[in-house]
Amino acid sequence: MSLVSFPLMRYVVTAALRDRIVLTLFLMILLGISTAMFLGSASMIEEDQSSIVFAAGGIRFLGILGVILFSCFHIRRSFEHKEVEFLLSRPISRISFLLSHAIAFMLIACVIALVMSLSLAVFGKPNFYGLILWGGSLAVEYMIVAIIALFFSMTLSSAAGSALACFGVYVLSRMIGTLLGISNGSTDSEVFEILGKVMEFISIIIPRLDLMAQTEWLVYGIDNLNNIEFMRNATDFSRSVLGVLHIYGFILLQGVLFISLLLGAATVDLLKKRF
After folding, report:
1. C-beta pairs of 14-18 under 8 Å, 24+ apart in sequence
2. How many whole angstroms separate alpha carbon 83 and alpha carbon 275?
3. Which pLDDT tens digit goes with each residue over 168-219?
4. Environment class of 92 (CB within 10 Å of its CB; exposed 0-12, middle 13-18, buried 19+)
5. Nearest-angstrom CA–CA distance, 115 and 139
């Protein structure tokens, strides 16, 4: 029995097209970029660069919004309409069911990231190599978030609750770098020291999305990309690993590790469910 069901993948992609998620996102991208160009035109200097920064930040969030809402509501709707029970009664295993949905969601996430990148290329003047790295890391980010949405929608019984949990993880993943910087800079208080240890532990078990799709790549390129600054308490092993991987390898490694971990957890939960 195959681990991946291509008809099921086609069904999920068709559902995305039926819901017009790509068309809706494209219209929202046009609105977001138009707003960004208007805000950038108000800048006294670096008008084009300001427009790119505003546009990239805005459409990045719009893409996350589309990925999370579609993934969560599609899975929960499948449970509510008894589609999951029907599909699992066919000659398809639970692992194949989960992997097929995961691959379909990741494919949709990559398409959305491609649409975002092409929109910036058409309406703005980003650095070419910076745009490639930005778009590639955005695709990895969207794939991670899609699998997070798959995991929460499989384990939680509410579509709204699953979406809110995904947004909570996403916001924390985007802010973790700032929180680590604050905790490392405040050493006079025992409370801050304890909170710093807690944040360091949290940073291990959640993806570092703050290091992905950085808008400065679109403006300044990737010439100084390997000048990575480390926390003062980073170990020599961490420095050596990041020194070898650089930002490219770090982004890919994060994607592989967290997607594998979340799929493993979702598989265990699905195998324990009784239908």
Report:
1. 15/74, 16/70, 16/74, 16/108
2. 11
3. 999 988 888 777 777 666 566 676 777 777 777 777 788 888 888 888 888 8
4. middle
5. 10
